[in-house]
Amino acid sequence: MSEVICHVLLCETDDGLVLVDSGLGRHDFADPKRMGPARLMLRPERDDAKTAVGQIEALGFRADDVAHIVLTHMDFDHIGGAADFPGATIHTTADEHDWAVVNPNLTSKLRYAQKQWAYGPTFQTHAGPGDPWKHGLSGIEVLPGITYVPMPGHTRGHAAVAVDAGERGLLVHAGDAVFDASSYAATSPSGTPLTKVRRMRAFETAMAEDRKRITGNHAALRLLNDEDGITVLNAHDKRIFDDLVSA
Predict the structure, then answer these.
(1) What confidence tens digit (pLDDT) does each residue in 15-26 have?
(2) Of the residues 17, 81, 129, 229, which has the fewest C-beta atoms closer than 10 A?
(3) Are 21 and 8 within 8 A, CB to CB?
(4) Phi and psi for 31 in degrees, rounded to 5?
(5) If 0-12 CB within 10 Å is exposed, 13-18 middle and 19+ buried, where does residue 32 land?
(6) All domains of the chain, ordered by start, with CATH?
(7) What is the pTM of this model?
């Protein structure tokens, strides 16, 4: 597989900074066993400067400026960095929290790295499908301008996160509802053609909790991405990250 990132959004709001996902963090790099056995397959680069907290500090903010972390789901590479912001409230869907924290079964015990939230964060869960949103999807308002769009499949309680970015339109962080951006878009936001990345697609299928939902999630994201004023980005396709950064 080519280089893989974990795309994190930093939002400035009236209620402080908000992260959408947190990537891996300093605690994970100091104690790699926190990440669980999946680290042996993905072999993450342990570079402090690339952590969310490292990049936030480089922008002149402090870790305690982050008031909220809105998770697409609780896999180790999406929640690990949350421990670098111990005062932040962690938002997740009620289904995801139940499967990972409250009533884990054997599958979720093997999948999730419970040590990553052993520091005792404050969780705020969001239940139900929410209200009618776009293209037949439902939405749950997490914070002003930030909406959960439930997309289970990769995990039981996975959700995309839609962020109202003002003049930049609506940013939809699809998390792991799609791995290969060519599954929902013919081109990157700048118009560069996207080719299939078969290894990413295979990995997506292998890691899905409910494989039957993958195609439907891709179709929903394609409808959103095709709408003027909406940009869909996912967690791990570096082509979209590089394109947005260069823009």
Answers:
(1) 899 999 999 999
(2) 229
(3) yes
(4) -135, 80
(5) middle
(6) 9-246 (3.60.15.10)
(7) 0.95
